[in-house]
């Protein structure tokens, strides 16, 4: 018999993956989350911390007024004149309540002093600008609202400086007023507070405390807020209110009552600086304080960078939140669909009257492409040649230019139904096409050179061909080397992620992949599909999609089992999955235009690419958001809620695993490694997908990654 002509397309040079781009992306995301964590530092309403004694605090300060000018050289304090009130507001600006407060102030024609948080100024620049435009005064209330007594000196300065930069960028002014978070009256200053006041004074700040505290943050009711804010007799007062940090409806209503009430008692309303100047005048001090000095151009530029960083981090976290919900919906939706359709598939197959049709006894040709498979080729060929298919099995081993004596090992077996075809190295698709050309029979089984078949696997695999519409059959691939932890993780993935999915895809008539380890084909169907091509690195996915487009049914035969050798190192696993992910995307891109086809081609492609895009690319691409937000939550949010959410996700995965293992008749004992899988293996698969997408988007080409093999033992039958 003359040998058919063997052709191979020229292999293309492949540049390395874009590791630098991936590293930069991860670094940027980490930086964004850290910025957001810093600027979103949680704070509680103002309160007094425990008193540390007042021995170091001058008596003039403890018994003095709420405006304190204190530095290393001198200490002075001031009170407002009688019947003078300065309305001061903390924690803003707020997009909801600051405008409401301003509405009341404008209605009564009074101005206030707003001690703002720098992070809030960056987030709500329009509100800050409106305050300045309305003639109101701004003061520093730090950037993130920490307890300054617990911070080092440089951190205290940073809190002030960042707030000043935000004000410079947004309003064009800077301020000399400061109010510390959790501060109170002057007589509450203790030994722990005093160094903070001195340090701020050395930086040129004037500390503003309060005479009366409305305690509006406690929501005690409008009457109580007004009572708390009202000074005794006719004394002047700096009153403390809040325009952010929660529901401030009571604050707005109380202001609307408090201002006219105090005006009727003869009070005038001033800003803190104007009140200080009145105090200077009453004391005969020839000095006038100024408020709202112009910021320098350098401060404005640096402040703009800070504002962009804060707002950018907020927007990224918002996007992450949306993606978190999307991933959750996709995960739960996928699980629900799997339970429904995979369960239906299993019940139908286990029905007592289920059959594909008359027993298929036609002879079968098994094609084994082999390139340097000396470790496992003998066991693989023996398992194939010794199959119990009644029609007979022909094994065609195509040696694709091996340099390790693979072909000689097969020849030495001297099995009567095994042939060896030697050819120059041309790649797996070329070897498969060569094998098909040499095959004598119309039923073709394609296997990998490291795969060991159970004795009845070929017979069971070809039974679906009793249905003349079936063009290809996917077998049940099992991990044969399960001793290592990484192999156990792959075993779980094969059962859940591959075999359970195939039940779903068959039910929906959109099977995307007949696995290279065990797949059956009609010669006629392969001819329709154009054979195996090297257009992609996932030739099995490519040909399966082509078969579906041609109108052939592609089904899953769970009872046809083959055992493959899984990678045993992280590096080898990375190479394999990277090739799979990249090749799958290549196949999707290759067949993308057929989504617009009419008839069977369009229907199949739309379903197939939809599910592949949703669950094969989008979900694993977005799933790292779960882990990123989980880490973020553990460090910066509610740890209990974060842990509960993570456990719920793990519970969903565990239930899915139990169902998949039951359907596949596997033992559940190995599932003890599932929680551990969430901390290493899952993240590795995410990075594989991210790297594959980056490579695709940047135009990189990935070469074939040959894995190291040690070989599997022959099997008669395995379970569990």
Automatic annotation (TrEMBL):
Pfam families: Glyco_tranf_2_3, Polysacc_deac_1. Residues 44-54 have a biased composition (Polar residues). InterPro entries: Glyco_hydro/deAcase_b/a-brl, NODB_dom, Nucleotide-diphossugar_trans. Signal peptide: none annotated. The chain crosses the membrane at residues 316-341, 608-637, 643-663, 684-704. The keyword Iron-sulfur does not apply. Residues 83-270 form the NodB homology domain. Keywords: Glycosyltransferase, Membrane, Transferase, Transmembrane, Transmembrane helix. The keyword Zinc-finger does not apply. Residues 44-66 are annotated as: Disordered. Belongs to the glycosyltransferase 2 family. This is Bifunctional polysaccharide deacetylase/glycosyltransferase family 2 protein.
